[in-house]
């Protein structure tokens, strides 16, 4: 780090380097781009971050970040309140919304159970999910968790905790992704796709 | 883009995607990381950007970004004012400072001449450089510009413009980079390294 860049710029570079996908080098390039494009990028980004920090909160029902509480999805009476899709993070919720495949409500766990990282059930929004499932209006909980060890551990734990309620518990299908060539798929996916094969 | 993320978050994602090395996907991941780490990342980054926007200006002498004007390097009487190192951007200046190889002053052009991108001499801080070179105190101008077509075009143009002054014009040596294996070097570098070979 160059002492000559000044403490303000060094601090900015240090913070930018903490963003996922950024390192010390790309953070310097980003800081440089910000300094070059003051009106188009630096000032709008500063304002946007300040606005986000001031206005965006986690929805008290589902945990998704929004300026409203309950969030716009929880408040949307046009969506099926009998269906809850459980996701790890808001990123998965946004991906699901982009797909347009789901018209129910969501529940954002805020992470996954992980023995290695010491994440237990109390660190996630699991009791809130059980509470919602017990309310009576909920008919089905779709577990849309990643197909990783932690994701599947979490899914099993949730299915176990929810087994005492009346709701049906489902999870996303496993199989060959659209555009996926068998040559490039891992064995686990092929095994799952074969096991869950269906009439063409 | 998910409409459900809300206009504030969408705006933030759009701005983050404009940073170099970021795309729509990584910008979403970055926004998510910011929302998850509110106290450690979102609020400090908002404050740091606001501070940078408010305090950091281009030095009126050399063009480097700094909170002081003249910048800390231009104001440093311990550095050789007879030596000016010309760089494209502040990033190159920071790299030069990290190397510790130069103890003179700098001149930041703010870009390179480019016929393709329509960047002419008036768009760069070239007249300021000529002005500094004419002042009399300057003995040598080191052209530390990239070894690209635009970089070398700019270097030739500057050498031409400076030829009327008393200053000596030099440029960085070309050759095999430290740790560079010949196998992995491009032909142009090997040709230059061979041409500029020196007694071992």
TrEMBL record, chains A, B:
Q: Where are the zinc fingers (C4-type)?
A: 59-74
GO terms for MF: DNA binding; zinc ion binding
Q: Which domain of life is it from?
A: Bacteria
Q: Which residues form the signal peptide?
A: none
Q: Name one GO biological process term.
A: DNA recombination
Asked if the record carries the keyword Zinc, the reply is yes
Span of domain Toprim: 82-177
For this UniProt record, the keywords arranged alphabetically read as follows:
DNA damage, DNA recombination, DNA repair, Metal-binding, Zinc, Zinc-finger
Return the Pfam families for the record: RecR_C, RecR_HhH, RecR_ZnF, Toprim_4
Q: What is the similarity comment for this entry?
A: Belongs to the RecR family.
Q: What is the recorded function of this protein according to its Swiss-Prot or TrEMBL entry?
A: May play a role in DNA repair. It seems to be involved in an RecBC-independent recombinational process of DNA repair. It may act with RecF and RecO.
Q: What is this protein called?
A: Recombination protein RecR
- The organism of origin for this protein: Brevundimonas abyssalis TAR-001
Give the gene symbol: recR
